[in-house]
Design brief:
The complex is a heterodimer of chains A (290) and B (336).
Chain A (H helix, E strand, L loop, with lengths): L1 H15 L7 H21 L1 H4 L30 H37 L1 H16 L2 H12 L3 H27 L3 H8 L4 H37 L11 H9 L8 H32 L1
Chain B lengths: L1 H11 L1 H18 L4 H6 L6 H11 L5 H13 L14 H36 L4 H13 L4 H15 L22 H7 L3 H38 L2 H8 L4 H22 L1 H14 L5 H11 L2 H29 L6
The chains are: A mainly alpha (290), B mainly alpha (336).
């Protein structure tokens, strides 16, 4: 396990900071990393960045952005900058949990399904394809409703929706890798199947998994925001960008732009950050293969 | 005759997709903890006999397996059951009333996204490796990560609140008195010759369609660019040049071939379009299936949610069938 992790880490590092290749791919990864890390920093250092409590009145209601309240205040007089920095925690936790969960389900299922084939593989593929083809947001909404609104349940709902993404990608790759000579050799040497799958095949998939990881993180950010926009994630007054945006919707006609602009901008920025990392990595991989 | 057979076989494939999603949602909604009846009524101070009565009326006292097949049987006959919140309200009637709004929005969004995507992709490919190309490619990747409600609300702020050019939300001005024939307001206003209604419906359509279309346009930009570049490098384009065919004519030929994958992709993206439509509808108070779903979500109206999932699954299946057929018609190499 440690060996896989260390291999994975060197692999990731070598993709992110490549010695040979340079250019667009790397620039994209750097730009994306800068955005994501800035938001992660915001989440960790939240108490240092604002003197206000995100769930307490900090001044008059509906104050436009000023030095005192850089992102203004909302209808309850909460400081929106405080809600923004603390809100980063909520979205990052949900996204991290959901991605790890869906990877933990999708990757092993894809590995075994692809390696063994047969009836179970066909049944699983059909199930995954059906989920994959369906509007993911609608499915996430249904699951979140059934589970009840909470941070953890939102993470589960998002995780289920992205399992097929990992499953399909991993399965497809395993199908081609398992035909390669080194797998045949491993089998001929009598190495146990589970060892072949995890030690011989899995390391080859890590770059692709990384790409899917960052791209689905971008999707997960948007889905989390959508769920909380619809009131299906954390409950108020916990700060959350999607929920704040929903609250801001009620004041569009009054022209209180800061209640809409900032929460939505943060959602889009974080999603863009992950998407840039994913795209940069996939460009790197494509070039390495050429 | 091959094509008809293909259509039949392909249509059969919709069945398992719908069944799988129905089963999934059925299991999730029934077997998870929490009593749906209590959740809907939102109170625990109801005498048990009355609760039993409500359960009986909704058929919830039957074994799961019976409920599963009964519901399926009813759906096959076009009956999605009745709402759990407003007793006796037919879900089928609700859905039929709201479906045209969603379809209208989806079509408008698709048209906008294709228009933006194909134009930008075309420009990027013809101005390859220039600053404009790079800019358009960045545009293509960034639009995808725009959060739909944010974009929609910003459009409302700019175009409805500050500039007052367009209405902020809704589907039509209620004062114009449009007679509905098909439920598609733009079509209806043309049929009945109601110009005022037509203008109103169109002006209400612009912002939602632009929001949905812009977010979904990115992949088309990329797809058209990549395919057009590939087509322009291919041997048949070289052959055209050798024969002295005019440049614009060659571009037209290459462009047509570059569009074929766009059709396939438009079909694949339909699920995304529907998901985006849910968010667009709630942002613009557009009375479609998406807002219906969200309304029902707040009441935890299980039968209604189940019905929306089935309808969407069916939709996705039918669209992918249609796309396959268009693909077959466009590409003469594909024969069934």
């Amino acid at each position: 396990m440690v060996e896989i992790l260390s291999k994975a880490l060197t692999r990731i590092l070598s993709t992110i900071i490549p010695s040979r290749v340079s250019g667009r791919g790397r620039a994209l990864v750097y730009a994306g990393l800068a955005i994501v890390l800035a938001i992660v920093f915001m989440a960790i250092a939240a108490p240092l960045l604002t003197p206000y409590d995100p769930t307490r009145r900090a001044g008059r209601s509906f104050q436009p952005p000023s030095w005192e309240h850089p992102f203004g205040t909302n209808n309850l007089g909460y400081d929106m900058w405080a809600r923004t920095v603390y809100g980063a925690r909520t979205v990052l936790i949900v996204v991290f949990l959901s991605i790890v969960l869906s990877m933990a389900m999708g990757v092993p299922l894809g590995l075994f399904s692809g390696y063994y084939g047969g009836r179970i593989d066909r049944a699983l593929s059909m199930l995954m394809d059906a989920i994959y083809a369906f509007p993911s947001l609608v499915l996430a909404i249904s699951l979140a409703v059934a589970l009840g609104p909470s941070l953890f349940n939102a993470a589960i709902a998002i995780a289920v929706v992205y399992v097929p993404t990992y499953f399909r990608m991993v399965r497809g790759q395993v199908l081609s890798i398992k035909e390669e000579l080194f797998v045949e050799v491993a089998r001929a040497l009598g190495i146990p199947t589970s060892r072949i799958i995890f030690r011989h095949i899995l390391p080859h998939l890590i770059p692709t998994i990384m790409v899917v990881f960052s791209l689905s993180a971008a999707d997960a950010v948007l889905t989390e925001a959508a769920l909380s926009y619809l009131g299906l994630s954390v409950q108020p007054p916990t700060p959350d960008w999607g929920y704040d945006l929903y609250k801001g919707k009620g004041f569009v006609l009054s022209g209180y732009w800061w209640l809409i602009f900032f929460p939505g901008l943060m959602i889009t920025l974080l999603a863009t950050g992950f998407a840039l990392i994913g795209e940069g990595l996939s460009e790197q991989i494509r070039r390495e293969r050429l | 005759m091959g094509l008809l057979r293909y259509i039949a076989v392909r249509a059969m494939l919709i069945v398992p997709t719908v069944l799988i999603l129905y089963t999934l949602v059925f299991i999730v909604l029934r077997i998870l903890p929490g009593d749906p009846v209590l959740a809907v009524l939102g109170t625990k101070n109801i005498p048990p006999e009355q609760l039993e009565q409500i359960r009986h009326n909704l058929g919830l006292d039957k074994p799961y397996i019976v409920q599963y097949f009964e519901y399926l049987w009813n759906v096959l006959h076009g009956d999605f059951g009745t709402s759990m919140v407003i007793s006796g309200r037919s879900i089928t009637a609700d859905l039929l009333e709201r479906l045209p709004a969603t379809v209208e929005l989806a079509i408008a969004g698709l048209i906008v996204s294709l228009a933006i995507g194909i134009t930008t992709g075309f420009i990027a490919a013809t101005k390859r490796d220039t600053k404009l190309d790079l800019g358009l490619r960045v545009f293509g990747s960034v639009t995808y990560t725009l959060f739909i409600p944010w974009l929609g609300l910003m459009f409302q702020l700019i175009f409805a609140v500050w500039l007052r050019w367009l209405p902020a939300s809704g589907r039509i001005d209620p004062d114009v008195g449009l007679e509905t024939v098909t439920g598609f307001y733009i079509l209806d206003s043309i049929i009945t010759g109601n110009m005022e209604a037509f203008r109103s419906a169109l002006s209400h359509m612009i912002l939602p369609a632009l929001t949905l279309g812009l977010v979904l346009s990115g992949p088309y930009t990329r797809l058209v660019r990549t395919n057009l570049v590939k087509a322009l490098e291919s041997n048949y384009v070289l052959a055209y040049h050798a024969r002295g065919v005019r440049g614009s004519r060659i571009l037209l030929h290459a462009f047509r071939n570059a569009l074929i994958p766009v059709v396939t992709y438009a079909g694949l993206q339909f699920a995304l379009l529907l998901g985006g439509a849910v968010l667009t509808e709630t942002t613009f108070d557009w009375p479609g299936i998406g807002t219906y779903l969200v309304e029902k979500v707040s009441y935890r109206d299980y039968p209604a949610i189940q019905a929306v999932v089935i309808v969407f699954a069916f939709f996705v299946g039918v669209i992918s069938l249609i796309v396959d057929l268009i693909y077959a018609l466009l590409d003469p190499r594909i024969r069934y």
